[in-house]
Structure formats: structure tokens, C-alpha cells
Amino acid sequence: MLDENFPCYSFKPSSLGNSIISSLFFSENNSKPRLVYNLQKPDLSTSDLKGCYAIALYDPHNLGIVYADVQVKAEWTQPALSVADNRAQNTASTALIPMVPETFLIQLYNPDHQITVKMKTGTWNPMAYWKFEMPVESFRIPSSSLLDQTQNSNDPVLNEDTPKVTFKWKRDGKISKNLTCYMVGKNDDGKKRKEPDITVAFFKGGKGLTLYEPNLRRVEVEDKKGFELVLLLSAVVIKDIFFYPTKEMFNIFPSKDANSGSKSKLDIPEVSRMNNSTPNIMSNNTGSNTHLHSSKPVVVPCILNSSVSSVFQTSRSTKSNVDQETERLKRLVAAEEKSRKDAEKEEERRTREMLKAEDEERRRREAAVEKETEELRKLYGSEHIKNHNNSHASATTEPVPKIYKLGGKILSTPLRVSPAVTSWLDARRKLTKPDES
After folding, report:
1. How many angstroms separate the CA atoms of 197 and 186, rounded?
2. What residue spans carry the region label Disordered (predicted)?
């Protein structure tokens, strides 16, 4: 254990004495370990999971509550034989060899979500690492609308635009059995340099998983409980199928079973992983999502045999119903989209008609104004005729006649007078001025 104060999951054999069941105990702050999960593999004597590795994580107190499971199908390939072997087996068929795939899926329940874990090989470092992504948002926005609750477009898990946080498991050494999980640093500014990777968990030789609590606050994942389940299952699966690959892990024993290449599915009832007995280590940082983990778990009732491994044999009878419901919802969404487009087209048509009517009304008013203007022009005369008359009058106007004062009377004459008469009148006017004064 790295530190007794850190949250730690320890693996121990089941108290029932069953080799296919392992118990997971949780401890924190040097507290007494308590049972929180059971890790179970299928019973080979009763299951038909030939050619498939399977493991599930479920509640130790209620065998019908499965939180997550993993199934890895072997990839069959033709072995490379020498020339002598090919001649010796010319008449006989060559048996296929199972190969470990590079990827596997972790199925989480309520909300249903699949996490893909893929093995990567470094370009300059031959040591491989295992990479997976967790969405930042995993839960739907609470809504009283049934359509909002069923539409896939409102599910952040299925939305491709939902931001994701990348994690990777790295082996401490080529022959080491220890793994360390890192949160990959971001590179938002577009520069070559990015934030350094931070450590979030340690897996020590298959004995236990320790969460590095000081760095958990920097993990921006809404589904904290789902993140812990992914860490547990991914570490166990990597240890089982990549560190110690054998035919037995794919449930292959007789050669006839190996040749058949059976690829049965792991059938486990889909139930809740919320409100289990395990404390949410990272819930202190996401107080807004506390109500999501405090809801009552949805448990699918199932009939269990005396053996706990009967959980793997329970058929997913609701799969066809889920597919039918999915198709119905798709048709409902398509019909709603069609009605919305029809309403938009109708609104556009009404807008065009309204604009056309307004344009016709404007033209009608302009025509009425033009008609009234023409009538007034005919009644009172046109403006250009008045301008013509004014210009003609100004061209033919005689000079303004002079005003003469004779005998105390003002005399205006439009006639032209001779200069002699004009000089006499001026002299007369000068002589009469002193008398008047």
C-alpha cells in the first residue's frame, strides 16, 4: 500500500471458498477494510463462454446488482508453419490459434456507457500502454419531459461533441507487475508544449488499487463512481490477458472447442451502479451531482442458482425490447423533425405572402396619389405653364417710367419726352422747392 490514508481497494479470495470469486475491500484514512464489491469470472462447468474472457463487478450483498462487466473475445488466426510442418499436415487441417485483441470494452450500467480500452505501442519506447477516455459529462439534464428523457440527442454520453478526458495505464517496467494510471495533459492553446501528465492511481501486482487522492480534484469527470469502476476493471483485465496470456483465460480446453471458435456473449442483467455501499471518493468536488448517486438503484430481478456464477447465464431478454424502443424513438424524432421543417416552410410561405400583400398595397396607394395629382394639375394648371408665362412677361417689360411732380401733383407718364421738356421740368422743380419750404 502506498499510504494507508489514501483510498485503497484490496483484492482477497472469497470467504465462500469459490475460486472464481474475488472480494474487494475498501479502506481509507487507516480505517478497517470493508467489503464493497465482488469480482467474478464465469463458472466453466456451467457456462458456455468458450473462446471468450469474461469478468463482472457486482454488489456483494445483492447478487442481482451488476455495476460493470467486460467480455473479450479471442481473435483466431492461422499459425505460421515451416515447410516441413506444412508437408506433414498437408492432408490435415491446421488448428487455429487464439490471439489476444488489442482492444476491449468495459460496459457500465445506469447510465449505460461503453469505455474502449486500447493498447498502444510507443514510437521510440517499445513499452506498450493502454489508453481510454472518459466523458466530462455523463448524466442527462433533469427534465420532466418524457421526450427529453428518451432522446439520444440529450444524452451527453452519445453526443460526439461532449469533451473527454484521456487516461492511460503504463507498466512500471518490462517485467514489472505494477501499473500506474495517468491523466494525459491537455494542449488547448495549440502549442507544441502541453500540460504534464498527472498520476491518479496505482495498481500493485494485482493485490490492490490505490487512488492518488491529491490529484483526483483535477480530474474533471462527472461520473466519479463510473471512473473508479473503469479503473478497477481495466487494471484487472490488463493483468489477466496481457501479462499472463493463456488458452485457459479464454475458456479453451479441448481442441474441438478451440477449433470451433465459439464466441458466446456474456449475458448479465443491466442494473444500477448507483447508491452502492462504496463511498464516492471524488464526490467532494462535484456537489451538484450528489442527487444522481443517492437515487434508489434499479435492480433487475433474476432467479439465481445456488452458485453465484449463474449471473453470467442470465439472458438479456430485454435486448430486443430495447432495440424496438430505440427504433420507435428514432421514428418519433424523425417525425418531429419533419413536422418542424413543415412548420418552418409554412411560416416562410406566410411571410412571403404578407410581404407581397404589403408591396401591392404600397403600389396601390402610390397610384392613387399619382391620379389625384394629375387631376389637380388639370384643374389648376401645370407649373411649367406658369413658369413660361413668367419668363415671357419679364422679357417684354418696359423700363419703369419716371415719376414727376408738377404743381403739387404726382404725375406718372409712360410716354417718352424730349430732353428739352425734361430740362424745363427739372428747372421748374428747382424753382418751386424754395416756395414750398
Report:
1. 9
2. 333-372
pTM of the model: 0.55
Query: Helix, strand or coil for residue 334?
Result: helix
Query: How far apart, in whole angstroms, are the C-alpha atoms of residue 224 and residue 108?
Result: 12
DSSP secondary structure code for residue 159 in this structure: -
**Phi, psi for 320 (deg, rounded to 5):** -65, -35
Q: Which residues of 251-290 are buried (b: 16+ CB within 10 A; e: fewer)?
A: bbeeeeebeeebebebbbbbbbbbbbebebbbeeebeebe
Among all chains, which residue has been given the C-alpha cell 427739372? Answer: 426
Q: Which residues pair with 70 in a beta bridge?
A: 55, 106
Q: For residues 198 and 216, give the distance between their C-alpha atoms in angstroms, rounded to a whole number.
A: 10
User: Is the separation of the CB atoms in 80 and 71 below 8 Å?
Assistant: no
Residue 412: beta bridge partners?
403
Which band of pLDDT confidence, cut at 50, 70 and 90, is reported for residue 76? confident
d(CA 92, CA 173): 42
pLDDT band at 125; cut points 50, 70, 90:
low
Q: Can you tell me the mean pLDDT for 174-183? A: 88
433's CB contacts (< 8 A; 6+ apart) are none
C-alpha closest to that of 261 among 79, 50, 99, 54: 50
Q: Where are the domains of the chain?
A: 8-82+92-317, 318-395
DSSP code, position 241: I
Distance CA 19, CA 16 (A): 9
How many whole angstroms separate alpha carbon 414 and alpha carbon 173? 132
The span from the CA of 88 to the CA of 91, in Å, is: 8
Evaluate whether 57 touches 232 at the Cβ level (below 8 Å): yes
Detail the DSSP E strand segments found in 207-299. Answer: 208-211
- 26-51 pLDDT per residue, tens: 998 888 989 999 998 877 666 667 77
Scored b (16 or more CB within 10 A) or e, 115-154 reads: bebebeeeeeeeeebbbbebbebbbbeeeeeeeeebbeee
Q: Which has the closest alpha carbon to 184: 120, 232, 103, 139?
A: 120
Cα distances from 385 to residues 202, 308, 389, 397, in angstroms, run 105, 114, 6, 19
| Rounded Cα–Cα distance for residues 209 and 10 (Å) | 6
In the three-class reduction of DSSP (H, G, I as helix; E, B as strand; rest coil), residue 169 is classed as strand
Q: How far apart are CA 25 and CA 11, in angstroms?
A: 7
